[in-house]
Design a protein that fits this description.
alpha/beta; 5-stranded parallel beta sheet; Rossmann fold; 11 helices; P-loop_NTPase
């Protein structure tokens, strides 16, 4: 396995060296050409439905390029190789960080590596298409993320989900180690009220902070609730928000998420609510009005 990984890294490095020629030509010999490119941030939280929204905004054939958790090296997209043409040796370094992330999961911060988030977005903006990247708290430091929003003015989708449902889903995923497709209805977990309160407060503060940051930067925003992902009219609204003006290939984008629901039981929530004397709606993640 070690030899196989080394061979893969050598092949990746060779591809990066090969990409130096078009990079140098584009940088020093070719006059820059206008590119139709659009950056869309999905600002949200773990277990809020970002995997589902990604399935609604992903079709390379019609220009929708979904990168997932790009800034913590938790996803690969074929356009990563194209970034080498504008940011030398990008995919080689990205692949090394991706392997490290999968070997030992942690919330790696993009800016602590040799890669630069600003240079990365500059490179992506030179690639035609709609570039959808999801960002959670801890993916990027506040000063860096705020500077990127101020400079690039991405379209921003805020995705919210009931705090308790999100907390339960997050705890179950952590307990099982299965973040997608694995059934979790029968999984038994313990909920700590103090931990839940901290979870609720921290993520609410992040959301409220960036609603203001986006408004101050003049970004176009769309605020979506988790339940909206199963409403065809709302789904189309999300896709229209992300799409270029004049886009017409709507039949090539799904009107419902293609992901699988993992948890079909509310028993954990119901027991916890009973112990607190609360209702499910008490923990709705409400939209902030600006």
């Amino acid at each position: 396995m070690v030899a196989k990984n080394k061979l893969a890294s050598i092949k990746k490095l060779a591809l990066n060296i090969k990409a130096l020629y078009p990079y140098l030509v584009a940088k020093f010999l070719r006059k820059p050409q206008p590119v139709k490119s659009k950056i869309v941030f999905v600002l949200s939280f773990p277990r809020s439905g970002t995997h589902a929204i990604g399935s609604l905004l992903s079709n390379d054939e019609v220009g929708f390029k979904y990168y997932g958790e790009f800034f913590i090296f938790n996803a690969w997209h074929k356009n990563i190789e194209r970034i080498n043409r504008f940011y030398p040796f990008f995919s080689f370094r990205y692949s090394l960080n991706l392997k490290a992330q999968r070997t030992s999961w942690q919330y790696d911060k993009f800016e602590t590596t040799s890669l630069d988030a600003r240079k990365t977005l500059l490179a992506i903006s030179q690639i035609p298409g709609i570039h959808v990247i999801k960002i959670f708290p801890q993916h990027l430091s506040d000063p860096l993320l705020q500077s990127l929003i101020a400079e690039f003015k991405p379209h921003i989708i805020f995705l919210r989900r009931n705090h308790l449902d999100r907390f339960v889903s997050h705890k179950k995923a952590n307990a099982s180690g299965k973040w997608h497709t694995a059934p979790s209805s029968d999984l038994v977990i313990h909920l700590d009220p103090v931990e839940f309160e901290r979870f609720l407060v921290n993520f609410t503060a992040f959301y409220e902070r960036y609603v203001k940051v986006a408004a101050n930067a003049g970004c176009k925003t769309l605020d979506i609730d988790f339940d909206d992902l199963h409403n065809p009219e709302k789904v189309r609204e999300i896709q229209k928000f992300a799409a270029f003006d004049g886009f017409s290939d709507w039949e090539k984008l799904p009107l419902a998420p293609t992901t699988v629901k993992q948890d079909r039981s509310n028993k954990v929530q119901d027991d916890f609510l009973h112990s607190l004397g609360k209702k499910h709606s008490d923990f709705n993640f409400t939209k902030v009005a600006i």
